From TrEMBL:
This is Threonine--tRNA ligase. Homodimer. The gene is thrS. Residues 219-485 form the Aminoacyl-transfer RNA synthetases class-II family profile domain. The lineage of its organism: Bacteria, Candidatus Zambryskiibacteriota. It catalyses: tRNA(Thr) + L-threonine + ATP = L-threonyl-tRNA(Thr) + AMP + diphosphate + H(+). It is an enzyme of class 6 (ligase). It is found in: Cytoplasm. Its cofactor is Zn(2+). InterPro entries: aa-tRNA-synt_IIb, aa-tRNA-synth_II, aa-tRNA-synth_II/BPL/LPL, Anticodon-bd, Anticodon-bd_dom_sf, Thr-tRNA-ligase_IIa, Thr/Ala-tRNA-synth_IIc_edit, ThrRS_anticodon. Zn(2+) binds at residues 281, 332, 462. Gene3D superfamilies: 3.30.54.20, Anticodon-binding domain, Bira Bifunctional Protein, Domain 2, Threonyl-trna Synthetase, Chain A, domain 2.
Length: 593
């Protein structure tokens, strides 16, 4: 990379190298102030980089400013990264006072490389910019925060100090991200979930095990009913499976060997071992095999909204976004080989319809394939994988949306399409997954009788549209900032009498709404009107009705709408008959506007 790049704008393809280089620069700056600090590892990550250290005495976020200034002071002198190979013994001698680097060196297979820039040398495999002084703008990065991190993510190991940094292609992109993050903090689903009474997490029940409060359960139930209805229209058949299975089922499927640490187990009084399911496919395979099938039965689409359990590490848990107990809208399509194309097209159509309802119309697609350097991690031979990967590449190419190919991200039994969407503030979320599986049908001996009367191997598509309801709901809370559309809102209308003398009419209107399926509340508290209206706004209720003398006399209702949720205030819809307002509500709920 000899071509000089502008400090104002770096090529997007180069940003990972920039972030990796900045991790080295961070470690160099830390060593200037804390010579006895032990540097461990420092990778590039989404939005920036980090480096983990063992400090002899604690540091805090207050120390970041001076470290960042030192990074910018050093940067102009870093003209290159000079790499060189060393023997394991040489490496151990160089890092003899750093047990963390020694541990890494002892695990390396093949060559060991050091990279030096300025006066700083680190153990590294490479992947830097050629000339940091020219390719990294001092305005395009900043140190962000300090956190605790166990060495290598293992809770049994020592707690280290992790320093996070942000880095982007330009100062403008860094500023955009900081603005986006500030907005995201306001929309934090954990904060809004508490304020709006949607869910709770109890220390006694356990971290990563959210419980839905009545209002939150309404949203989840509406989502479940919606996705079930859309799938039933397309001919999906819903099934129900238990939450546990014999250990042997997951040994056969290969999941226990791959994910055993995440799958809780239990034994009965006879010593037989059972596993709490972390995935549903092996159960659905056994449902398929419970009856004979012919070509006339296919495609057979088995669907289920069901909970799975994954023993995620406590440090990775986050509200509804990362949990130990999650409900998936899971489906398995059992099809013939000549149905793969039409089935994927149908799935993508369903996905676009569903996402469009929530305003997710900007897609990014990743095709996850095998790691060609580590084929032993996967079921099946080369020919099967090559065929499956080629099919997915062709289908996404035909769809016509931009995509990338991600090596090493495939499931162990087949490649997959992962679809990401952007929310209302521009963040990306991975939602729909379509996995093409030729291997498990072989493993579970899943067949159908063809037109020729002979047995043929079925093909399986593993599909989730929303993913998990927990994660999808967390995304929606932040996407809407709690201002849910009418059909999803836990309370759709608040009825507010001005004074106690108007309570009887308020109760009458409330009863009318409830009898007609509208989720309504009536506020009969002995409070002033302003306070009641503010409460309705704070609860982000889509509509509220104010009832005073005029409304009682005319037998009408005065309606105000939430309007623009970013503005403090609502839209006045004026007075109308209760029946007219009910008609408007029912139409909006039905159309899911």
């Amino acid at each position: 990379m000899n071509k000089e790049k502008s400090l104002d704008k770096l090529e997007t393809s180069n940003i990972e190298s920039v972030r990796h280089s900045l991790a080295h620069l961070l470690a160099a700056a830390v060593k200037e102030f804390y010579p006895d600090a032990k540097a461990t590892i420092g990778p590039a990550i989404d939005n920036g980089f980090y480096y983990d250290f063992e400090f002899s005495s604690p540091i805090s976020d207050k120390d970041l400013e001076k470290i960042e200034e030192k990074m910018k002071e050093i940067l102009p002198s870093w003209k290159s990264f000079e790499g060189g190979e060393v023997s394991a013994d040489e490496a151990r001698e160089y890092w003899k006072n750093n047990e963390y680097k020694i541990e890494l060196i002892n695990e390396f297979e093949g060559k060991i490389t050091f990279y030096k820039s300025g006066d700083f040398t680190d153990l590294c495999r490479g992947g830097h910019v050629a000339d940091p002084s020219k390719e990294i703008s001092p305005e395009s990065f900043k140190l962000d925060r300090i956190a605790g991190a166990y060495w290598r993510g293992d809770e049994k190991n020592k707690m280290l100090t992790r320093i996070y940094g942000l880095a982007f292609e330009s100062k403008e992109k860094l500023d955009e991200y900081l603005i986006q993050r500030e907005e995201a903090e306001k929309r934090d689903h954990k904060k809004l979930g508490k304020e709006l009474g949607l869910f709770t997490i109890s220390d006694l029940v356990g971290k990563g095990l959210p419980m839905y409060l009545p209002k939150g359960n309404i949203i989840r139930t509406e989502l479940e009913n919606f996705i079930r209805s859309e799938k039933e229209k397309l001919g999906y058949s819903f099934v129900t499976i238990p939450h546990i299975a014999k250990k042997e089922l997951y040994i056969k499927s290969g999941h226990l060997g791959k994910y055993g640490a995440m799958m809780p187990t239990m034994k009965d009084e006879n010593g037989e071992e059972f596993v709490m399911k972390a995935m549903n496919c092996p159960h659905h395979f056994e449902i398929y095999n419970a009856e004979p099938h012919s070509y006339r039965d296919l495609p057979l689409r088995l669907a289920e909204n069901t909970v799975v359990y994954r023993n995620e590490k406590s440090g990775e848990l986050s509200g509804l976004l990362r949990v130990k107990s999650l409900c998936q809208d899971d489906t398995h399509h059992f099809i013939k080989q000549d149905q793969i194309q039409s089935e994927i097209k149908m799935i993508l159509g369903l996905m676009q319809k569903v996402y469009g309802l929530f305003g997710f119309n900007d897609y990014k697609v990743e095709i996850s394939v095998r790691d060609p350097k580590n084929k032993g991690k996967y079921f099946g031979d080369d020919s099967v994988w090559q065929k499956a990967e080629a099919i997915l590449l062709e289908e996404v190419t035909n769809w016509g949306v931009p995509f990338s190919v991600e090596e090493g991200e495939a499931a162990f039994y087949g490649p997959k399409i992962d679809i990401k969407v952007k929310d209302s503030i521009g963040r990306e979320w991975q939602l729909t997954t379509i996995q093409l599986d030729f291997n498990q049908p072989e493993n579970f001996d899943m067949n159908y009788t063809g037109e020729d009367g002979k047995k043929h191997r079925v093909v399986v598509l593993h599909v989730a549209i929303l993913g998990s309801f927990e994660r999808f709901m967390g995304i929606l809370i932040e996407h809407y900032a709690g201002n849910f559309p009418l059909w999803l809102s836990p309370v759709q209308v608040k009825v507010i009498p001005v004074r106690e003398s108007h309570n009887a009419y308020a109760q009458e209107i409330y009863d009318l709404l409830k009898e007609n399926g509208v989720r309504a509340e009536v506020d009969l508290a002995d409070e002033n009107l302003g306070k009641k209206v503010r409460q309705a706004k704070n609860e982000k209720i889509p509509y509220w009705i104010v009832l005073g003398d005029k409304e009682v006399e005319s037998k009408e209702v005065t309606v105000e709408a939430r309007g623009n949720p970013s503005v403090d205030g609502g839209e006045k819809l004026g007075s109308m008959s209760a029946s007219k307002f009910l008609e408007l509500l029912q139409k909006e709920i039905k159309e899911k506007n």
